[in-house]
Amino acid sequence: MLYFNRLFTSSRLCATMKIKMLLLFTLALICGPVFAVEPLRIVGDEWPPYVDESLPGNGLSVEIVTEALKKSGYATHFALEDLSRAIAGARIGVYDVVSNIWYSEDAATDLDFTDPYLSNEMCFIKRKGVDIEYAFLSDLRGMVVGVVKDYPYPREFVMAGDIIKIPVPTMLPALNALAAGQINLVLGDRRDIDFLLAKFMPQEAKTLEYMPPCFPKNDLFAAVSKTNPNHAKITQDFNAALKRMKTDGSYQFILDKHSLEH
């Protein structure tokens, strides 16, 4: 009798556990990413003020991307990596989301691009009082210009062989070289330059000025790895959340926090 009681009790427990597991599975299907086992792995390359672990939310780009995914119910984890490794890692599924990337057809074969969430404006900057003007890139023939690895430079500038381009790993050394009179110009993103001058070179900034015209603005995207089976839904959820953020004020709040204009 005792054996049958134990058997009956054990059967009831098994049935109860099965029901609970079925309920949890059903909830996971209904609620989607909220119940995801693993957080989305976001990666970005250090590029202040867009990506910088010392800034609020790991930088402007990372905070916008993270908040849009959070509003869609996704948990996230951020990792810092150089751009080429970040993109390569996303292509093979090491990372789920690249936080800051410019559109290219090559990358689009392996990555699902979101709607653009910011734009970059490329401008030349020079020393004040130096007589340099241009209307066409051909006017800058023979000029020595500081450039940064992996920067989204306009194709016409990259292809301009009569401009002497001096590569540096980051923007700050280029700006220091410019202020010291070692090069004629620096070409870079205006937010990036403004941030670095304000933080690291406030005195030297008074001796520098932008040289118009700037290049047309270039859209900045996030991109989801197509190795993630839910990449299309993640991208769709991000785009919807971004639109809501621009309506409810949370997008502007993040811009204001980083003291930047759209």
TrEMBL record:
Keyword Signal among UniProt keywords: yes
Q: What are the alphabetically sorted keywords of the record? A: Signal
- Which Pfam family is an annotated match for this chain, by its short name? SBP_bac_3
Residue ranges annotated for the Solute-binding protein family 3/N-terminal domain, each copy included: 46-258
Q: Which InterPro entries match?
A: Solute-binding_3/MltF_N
By sequence similarity, the record places it as follows: Belongs to the bacterial solute-binding protein 3 family.
- What's the protein here called? Transporter substrate-binding domain-containing protein
**Which species is this UniProt entry from?**
Candidatus Methylospira mobilis
